[in-house]
Structures are given as C-alpha cells and as structure tokens.
Amino acid sequence: MRRVAAVVFFTLAWGLGPGPSVFIHAQNVGTPQFRGGAVLVTVDAYPQEKGRIVEGLKAEDFEVFEDGKPQKVEAFDFVRVEPAPFEAARIDPKSIGEANAAAADPTNRVFIVYLDAYHVRDDGSRLSAYPLLDTLRQILGVNDLFGVMTPFMRGRDLTLSRRLDQIEHELTSRWAWGQRDQPVLTADEAALSRCTNGQNVQDGAVIRPLYDVLLERLREDKTLTSLEDLIAHLGTLREARTDVLLFSDGWRLFDEDANLANSSSPAVPGIYSGPGGLTTRNPQSYGGDVASCNSMIIRLAQLRDGQRFRELLTEANRHNISFYPVNPGGLAVFDSSIRSQQFANPYASPSANPLGQDSSRLRDRISNLRTLAENTDGIAVVDSNDLRAGLAKVVNDVSAYYLLGYYATNTKLDGKYHRIQVKMKRPNTTVKARRGYFAPNETKPAAAGTPPPSADAAAAASPVNDALGALARVRPTSDFYAYGVAAAKELRIVTEIAGELVAAGKWAQGGDVQATVTGPNGEALGTSTGKIEASARGTVLKLPLNAAAAGPFRVNIKITGSSDALEDRVTIEPVGPGPLLGAPIVYRAAPGPRSPVRPVADFQFHRTERVHLELPELKPLDQRQARVLGKTGQPLAVTANVSEPPGNGDPILAIDVNLAPLSAGDYVIEVAVGAGAETEKRLIAFRVIQ
Fold it and tell me: At what angle do helices 187-196 and 290-301 cross, to 10 degrees?
C-alpha cells in the first residue's frame, strides 16, 4: 500500500492565485512554511542505477534547478506503490467528473494504454493481451487510474477507471484489435479507395497500388492526430506525471512527396500518362468528385509527420507525460506484409533495392519508438519476442519514485512555461524527472490544483460546451447509433449503421429496421418499422404518441439485412420543441445542392460531405440566421446557408454547411430565429473526422 505521511493543500493569499501544484507529500523533510505570493512546485523524480530505482536517498542527494537557477528542496518523500491485493479493492469512480477529479490529485497515478490499431497486426495484438493484463495488475495501486485509448477516439472520449474487469474482457474476447493489414476500416478509407481504384505509383524501389501508399499516410496522420489530442486532454486533467503504455509497430513519419502529389487527376477528362509511362485513370472513373479526390491525395502527399513528431515530444514533456512504447510484433524480418501488392520498379535508380528499402523502413519504425521513449523518460520494449521481460522493466521503472517540493525563486505569475532540471550528487546515478511547469497567471487565477487553461476548459460550462457534450456518446466500437426527437404527438427515431460496417460491404443492400418503444415505467408505447435503402446508412422511424407520453423512452432496435443482423437496446431522451422551432433532424449529403440527403445519428462527417439540418417552424418567422462555431464558441468563416424549402407538410427551416473548409474537429451550428418579440437559439454539434 502507498505510504501517505501528509497531504497539505495551499492557496496563495492576496489574490495572487495558486501555485502550479498544490500537493506536497512530506515525510523525511518537514512540511514547508506557507509563503504568500510564492509558487509551490512538486517534482516527481526517478533516480536509477543499472536500471533499478535507488532507495534510501535524502533530500541533499538531489539538486533542483528552475530555468537554470538552483532551488531549495523543502519537502521530500519516497513513495513505493504496491499493487492492489485483489480486484475488489479497486473502487471505480462513479462518474466521469469524479474520475477526472481523482486524476487531478497528484497522489493518484494515471496510466493510459494506447492501442495503435492502425500499426499493429492481429498476431501482435493476440500476443500482447495477457502480458498487458499482467503488467496492469502489477503496477496499479488501489487508488491509481487507467484508461484505454485508440486512434479511433478523441481525447475527450477517454474514460478513467480502476477496475480491470472490462479491459480484461475486451482484450481476451476481442484480441484481434490489431488491424494494420486490413485494407478498409473506415468510411474515409473507402472514399480513398474509390478515388484511387486501379492506379499504381512509384514508391522508391517498388511499384505499389496508389491506394496502399496513401492509406499508410492516412493512418499515420490519424494516429498522430489522436496522440496530439490525448496529450492536450491529459494536460487539462493533471500536472503530475502520466505514463502511456503505447502498443505499436512504430511509424515511418512521412514527409512531403511531390511525385505522389502528381498522382492527383487532372481536371480535364481524358487518358493521361504518368511518370515512367504509368497510366493515370480518367477522372470520370473516380467514385467521388474529382476536386474532393484531388484534395485528399494532395493533402496526404504533403504530410510533414517528422515535424509533427518533434512537436509531439515537446508537448508531452511540457505536460509531464512519459511514453513506454511496446512493439508487440517482436522481432520482425519484413516491414511489408506478405499480402501486399508490389513489384520491382524498373524506373528506379540502379542502386535501389526492394529488400534494402523494406529493411530500412522497418528500422525507422523501431527507431522512432526508441526516440519517443528516450525523449519522454520512458522505456522502449522493442526488438524482442519476450514481451513479459520487457514489460517487467516498465513495472520496475514506475513502481517507486521520490517527490520533491520547492518554492520557486521566480515569483512572477506570468503564465509562462518554466524548465525544471534535476541532478544527482550521488555518482553513477541517473535521474528522470518532471521537466517543467506552467506558472499561474496573475490576471486569470485558477482554482487550486487546476492545470493551465486550455481551449477545452475555456468552453466549459457554456451552451457550446453543453452542445458538444452530445458527441461524447459516439463510440467508435458501436455497430449503429440512434437518437430521438419529440414532434407533435409523435416520436421520431433516427437510426444509422456505423460507417465502418457499410464500408466493409455488409450492408450494401440496406436493411429492415424495427423499433419497439416502452415508457419510463415499462409501459408499451408501440412498434415502428422502416427500411434503410441500398447505398444508405440510416432512416427515420415515426411512432405516434398520446399527449401524456413522456421520456425517457426505452427502445429496442433491430436491423436485419440479407446476411447479418444488429440489435441493441437504447434509452432516448427526446429533444423537444422550443417556442419557435421544432427539434432538429440532421442529415448528410454530398456537396451538390441536388444530392440526396440521408439521416445521421452518429453526427460524424467527412470533409467531402455536407451537413443538412431540418427544423420544423412552429410559428411564422421574420428573422432567420445561422453560423458555424468552433468548439470554444468563436465564429468561423464558413458559410451556413439558410432556406425554407417547399414541402408537402409543415414549413421547414433548412441549414446547409459544406465541410470542405474545415479540418478534423468538433463544431457547432448555431441557428437563431425570431418572430416579433420572440426569439430562439439552437446549437447542434457535429464532428469532422477527415
């Protein structure tokens, strides 16, 4: 069990704001006397000899410097963490808020398991399941927290817990999470396939399908984006160290490729010849429009992942995050899969060698994992078929540490980043320690123990943030999504199959949908049926309701296709009408104004799509406007077209936004209307995933 001698919380006096870390765990040195206007900093340090933590050290064995100036250690403790004796001793937080509050407490350690599904083969994920579980059992103390992250998630989707039951079930029943060799996983990958079908391209010493070359770039881009988002999110949760166990075969870190950019199709129809006589397809054979395909290809050809990787290392150190990369594939011979389609490039330099190129790329992946570990004070478990032995080093590395506390000699509350350096007076001893902190800002004092303000924090407790909260229910592992809106005397249920399943071709012919609805007390309210048309993903079902019916509604949804069936039970809190507008239904469509619209339930879109909203007008309107907001509420220079299309029923207010100008991220459409003195505002969140 962790030994806790004293936990003291300080708030700086006279309105000067709190220090960057308000926790001090003092044992060998007495609790420091409070100093108004000073910044109390805690530093976690890991001194080692021959790869093992050094015990029995004293405060005078350490030297601490801030921005090159020596600091006096006034609080000191050695902490050894013992694993929980049994699973029941771990008590999960009751809510996300409680979990995040526990994470902010520096007495609790936080571990993140990052499963890089894009860069791990299925045999690697299978071999890593039990060693990973054993490692978590050994390192997690009673109060420590952990979370699981994948490239399909955003940082805000991360959920922290203490019990291992769920992750054990997932890893042992779904061990094949590694999907590196899978050709199509997501809707944007399917779109990329349509844009490149049948085209080959020179890739150094070999010729490969253009789709395969771009797919590697797309997946590396997604993984780096996910890691960047994770680091930013963890920076808002805590100041104490966070350890990330990253399971990955590594990345190549692509740079710009002018030859690859030239693979985009010319705008004029015709047959063209590419470099070395390789045939480029007629643009009219694209599955999507030429402009969207060209934009996607050029963007992927212009990646600068090496630069992004260096910036990622900097941000990880600024937020006290250490990476422990684990290569689950073990000792590999080839980087390319035996199923890959490639042949020697007759136009390459005589010195180019396909096998040599493959070996070089394999070395680059491992080298980048080592760089990640070395630059964030972690350990790389690579080039070994014995995962357990490598992970044992990780267990030893995180099982004990020292906490040092000092009052910074720099008392300026300027919000700037200050570098920390820890040195050892003891010979032959190395040390890994926190590398810096953000000073509090005198003009914007934060609550005690709160990390520096971020874009996410700035939006907290605002209507925009409340709207964005609806996106938290989107889970990348869901087979289908559903939500409901309350209209006049009826419940409208929107159901949509996950884009990954449709891209895999299982639901190309559509399917039949049945929704059975019960009220909050279990009373039967009826059944509604509908059909998802071929080439579509979703549909809207309507169920008449009596005036007394109120949510939440429990809905059993079953989708049946020619070769598969999906079934789940969901609870729907219906979105109700306001004084002027009915509840909105969201649709997706191609950018063209005449393209058909399809109902959306996952609220995720690609940049090649258009968001289409429909809101019933409950009264004649004399004011109508809409705009697109970023996740902090700032208006964006993106057009939101407002119209009132003719229809056969009640008047409808329609909003259309083409997504091409937006990058991946979360956004909100703000709709504001008026009728005389009455006004109403609606906020509808959506996510751009590529």
Answer: 100
Residue 2 lies in a domain: no
End-to-end Cα spacing for the chain: 46
Does one domain contain both 369 and 472? no
Q: Do 486 and 446 have their domain in common?
A: no
Residues 417 and 521 both lie in one domain: no
Nearest to 311, CA basis, from 417, 232, 217: 232
Within a domain: residue 173?
yes
User: Is the Cβ–Cβ distance between 188 and 606 less than 8 Å?
Assistant: yes
Taking 60 as the threshold, does the pLDDT of residue 384 lie above it? yes
Q: Kind of pairing, strands 678-688 and 641-643?
A: unpaired
Helix H or strand E segment including 362: helix 354-374
- Cα–Cα nearest to 669, from 644, 689, 686: 686
**Structural domain range at position 412:** 7-81+399-456
Let me know how long the chain is: 690
Assigned token pair, 112: 């993140």
Residue 91, domain member (yes or no): no
Is residue 377 in some structural domain?
yes
Residue whose C-alpha is closest to residue 503's, from 61, 112, 194: 194
CB 313 within 8 A of CB 253: no
Q: Is 651 exposed, middle or buried (0-12, 13-18, 19+ CB in 10 A)?
A: middle
Q: What is the full DSSP assignment across 144-161?
A: -EEEEE-TTS-GGG---B
Instruction: 339-342: list long-range contacts, CB under 8 Å, 24+ apart.
Output: 339/181, 340/208, 340/212, 341/208, 341/209, 341/212, 342/203, 342/206, 342/207, 342/208, 342/212
pTM for the predicted model, two decimal places = 0.60
Q: Which of 683, 120, 71 is nearest to 433 (CA)?
A: 71
- Which DSSP state fits 264? S
Q: For residue 575, what are its two tokens?
A: 């979105």
Q: What count of other Cβ atoms lies within 10 Å of the Cβ of residue 620? A: 9
**Domain end (from 397, 418, 446):** 397
Of 154-158, 447-451, 513-517, the one with minimum mean pLDDT is: 447-451
pLDDT of residue 475: 64
How open is the CA angle 207-211-217, to the nearest 5 degrees?
95
Half-sphere exposure of 374 (CA within 13 A, CB side): 8
Q: Which amino acid is residue 343, in one-letter code? A: F
Query: Are 68 and 120 found together in one domain?
Result: no
| Chain position carrying tokens 């429909």 | 614
* Rounded CA separation 394/369 (Å): 15
Q: How many domains does the chain have?
A: 3
Query: What mean pLDDT do residues 197-222 have?
Result: 90
Task: Indicate whether 550 and 596 sit together in one domain.
Answer: yes
For β-strands 40-49 and 430-433, DSSP reports them as: antiparallel
Residue 3, CA atoms < 13 Å, CB-side half-sphere:
13
